[in-house]
Design brief:
The chain is mostly helical. The chain contains five helices and no strands.
Amino acid sequence: MTKFLYMKILGLFMVIIGFSYCLTSFHNFYAYIFGDLLIANANIYLMTCGLVIPLYLFIFGIYFYFYSDRFFAKINPFIFITGVWMFVIGVFRIFIGTGLLQFLHFTFAYASIILAIFLVYGCLHFKY
């Protein structure tokens, strides 16, 4: 019971955080396109890749919320790799705030690191 409750709450947090940062990132993107936000040496095509990261978190949160594991003895590598990937993206956003990650809000880094820690902990403890 605890495993499924933990999965549902973590999935709900990922959906909420992913959707809210999608709105923030797209707001900054449109502000840049319409000239309200000026960024020096910006390449719009490369920076749009940074918009995909919160969108991926939102879609992965939906997947994770409805995910049910059938094999209780082994860890799903997709979920584990996504947790590690979220941690790495968060650390990159903290230390490198330019380029691809320009449109991500700096608090997204802390949120993704915390979610990644919870996700990897759940993978190791609950085997999902």
